[in-house]
Amino acid sequence: MYGSLLRAWQSFMTATEKLSELHVQIQKTLMTDDTEKIRNWQKDTYHRKIFGGFKESCEIENGFHKAQKPWAKKFKKLEKAKSSYHKACKKEHLASVRENNGKINPELSLEKQKKLTEDHEKCKQDKEKVKQRYEKSLQEINKYNPKYMEEMETVFDQSQQQEQKKILFFKQALLSIHKHLDITNNESIMTVYGDLNQAIMAVSDQDDLKWWRNKHGPGMLTNWPQLEYE
Predict the structure, then answer these.
(1) In the beta sheet, which residues pair with residue 54?
(2) For 169-217, how does the pLDDT look when each residue is reduced to its tens digit (9 = 90+)?
(3) Burial class (CB in 10 A: 0-12, 13-18, 19+), 52
(4) Contact yes or no for 7/199 (Cβ under 8 A)
(5) d(CA 200, CA 10)
């Protein structure tokens, strides 16, 4: 390999060295600018707690817990009233069955039949009382539902605002990384490829063949033997 072709080949070696240096520079930029920017954002946005976790996440969780607590208390009361009502219904149903069976039992005395009727009546009264408590608990929780939804939505909106800030930051961070990785608009790299292209286009078969002819062929300088005197 010689002449302009050799120079073109050497340009490839030079280009690879320059590109390697430029990629190292890009790596350093990513590590110093972009990585440091993300690290600082995380440090400023999320504050670690002594026993693990982040302060901001805990605040949102506590906000949801605080909003849910009154409703959960009413719901627990409602579930208890519902369970008591269902038990009272079963008890009243069994008392009704016993009363009806007693009425058709000829061997059962009137006194015992009366006792079964009284028991059934008491069960009905108890069921009605429990039903009223159940209905009252249901009314209370339904009345509280709008406030519960409002407070939960307030906390949710706060979490959405935090999430929006995070999304927008990372979008900008990714755009910055893309800009540093996008070598299509890098002037230094464009210069390297431009110089390489010029070196390739400068390859001339005629010049190289002429050089070879003059260096190693018929065109080389001659030094014919001559008469030599002592």
Answers:
(1) 48
(2) 999 999 988 888 887 777 888 888 888 899 889 889 999 899 889 888 8
(3) exposed
(4) yes
(5) 10
- Please give the Cα distance from 74 to 76 (Å, whole number): 5
Entry pTM: 0.66
d(CA 81, CA 138): 9
Angle (CA) 114-116-120 rounded to 5° is 115
CA-based torsion, 138, 140, 146, 151: positive or negative: negative
How far apart (Å, rounded) are the C-alpha atoms in residues 131 and 84? Answer: 9
Question: Using the 8-state DSSP alphabet, how is residue 227 labeled?
Answer: -
Cβ 54 vs Cβ 159: under 8 Å: no
- Paired strand residues for 48: 54
